[in-house]
């Protein structure tokens, strides 16, 4: 075992430990006053926004799915340290959980842990910044993951078809669904900060703050759709979890939030329609390109 493989092995176990600590802390901060005098739910309800749903972060089935999916891919990673394939340990062949990817993952989990501690103490601006850093680190984690997967797919595809498929389905989409959800949470935190934090003098109206957050999200949907279908198609062609998070979150806003004003209703509906449209475009582009050339030769087709 060389130095690089030893680093990957150590970071894999560290990634599991940090996420486990993050998960336990989230449960404690949600279920009772173990961390501070306020739970995450109490703080969220104390500072409501026009896009905060009653099930935010606690009863949301989507959050449960994101955590479950994360546990599944981390379990797969741990089993990869023990299983052996034709080329040796599965964790190294194909090597997609690279050192930079796992460092970004650990930083993101650390930011979420810090967010729980400060949000339960009603530090709104610091909480927003920590959630933003968590999302940025998550984007870095996903970026390193898809690049490493694309580099390792061709030499290992024929001999490790099952593992390559599981990497696309479990690991890539598992990371994507979690940090897609933190991206939505970041924009909710932004609305809370703009509406309630004493730093904002005078505080921004709740409707205006939510309009800003929804507009950012709408722009992000179109930017990601264009970039993943044109510039980064060969890296992101199997990423679909983002659309599920987005559609579910927006529908939840419409169904559970009764005090959304007309402008934000229009923006939310526009988000849902845009998400379905971009999802359909991505599916069409994938089918079209895969009919012309097999997926493992997609880089040739894009030249």
Strand arrangement within the widest β-sheet reads 1-2
Radius of gyration from the alpha-carbon trace, in angstroms: 20 Å
Q: Would you list the SSEs in sequence order as H and E? A: HHHEEHHHHHHHH
Strand count, sense and barrel status of the largest sheet are: 2 strands, antiparallel
Q: How many domain regions?
A: 1
* Backbone structural class: mainly alpha
> What fraction of residues sit in β-strands?
under 5%
Helix content: over 70%
Total beta-strand segments: 2
Assembly annotation: single chain
Q: How would you describe this structure in keywords?
A:
303 residues; globular; mainly alpha; disordered C terminus; two-stranded antiparallel sheet; 2 strands
Notes on the structure:
The protein has 303 residues and is an all-alpha fold. It has one domain. The chain is built from eleven helices and two strands. The longest helix has 36 residues, at 161-196.
In short:
With 303 residues, this protein is an all-alpha fold. Helices cover 74% and strands 1% of the residues. The protein has a two-stranded antiparallel ribbon.
List the helices and strands and how they pair.
Elements: H1 3-31, H2 40-46, H3 61-80, E1 84-85, E2 88-89, H4 99-119, H5 124-156, H6 161-196, H7 206-229, H8 233-236, H9 241-256, H10 262-292, H11 298-301
Helix pairs in contact: 1-3, 1-4, 3-6, 4-5, 5-6, 6-7, 6-9, 7-10, 9-10
């Amino acid at each position: 075992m060389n130095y690089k493989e030893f680093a990957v092995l150590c970071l894999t176990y560290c990634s599991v430990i940090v996420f486990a600590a993050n998960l336990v802390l989230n449960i404690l901060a949600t279920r009772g006053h173990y961390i501070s005098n306020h739970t995450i739910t109490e703080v969220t309800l104390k500072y409501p926004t026009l896009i905060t749903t009653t099930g935010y972060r606690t009863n949301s089935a989507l959050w449960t799915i994101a955590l479950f999916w994360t546990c599944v891919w981390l379990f797969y990673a741990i089993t990869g340290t023990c299983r052996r394939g034709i080329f040796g340990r599965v964790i190294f062949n194909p090597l997609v959980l690279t050192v930079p990817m796992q460092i970004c993952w650990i930083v993101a989990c650390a930011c979420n842990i810090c967010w729980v501690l400060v949000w339960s103490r009603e530090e709104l601006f610091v909480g927003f910044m920590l959630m933003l850093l968590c999302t940025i680190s998550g984007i870095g984690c996903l970026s390193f993951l898809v690049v490493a997967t694309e580099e390792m797919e061709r030499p290992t595809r024929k001999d490790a078809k099952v593992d390559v498929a599981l990497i696309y389905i479990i690991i890539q989409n598992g990371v994507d669904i979690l940090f897609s959800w933190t991206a939505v949470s970041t924009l909710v935190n932004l609305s809370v900060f703009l509406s309630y934090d004493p730093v904002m003098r005078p505080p921004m109206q709740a409707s205006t703050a939510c309009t800003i957050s929804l507009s950012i999200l709408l722009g992000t949907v179109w930017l990601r759709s264009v970039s993943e279908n044109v510039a980064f198609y060969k890296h992101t062609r199997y990423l679909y979890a983002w659309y599920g998070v987005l559609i579910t979150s927006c529908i939840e806003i419409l169904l559970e939030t009764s005090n959304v004003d007309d402008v934000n209703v229009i923006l939310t509906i526009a988000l849902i329609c845009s998400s379905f449209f971009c999802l359909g475009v991505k599916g069409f582009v994938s089918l079209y390109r895969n009919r012309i050339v097999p997926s493992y030769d997609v880089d040739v087709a894009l030249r």
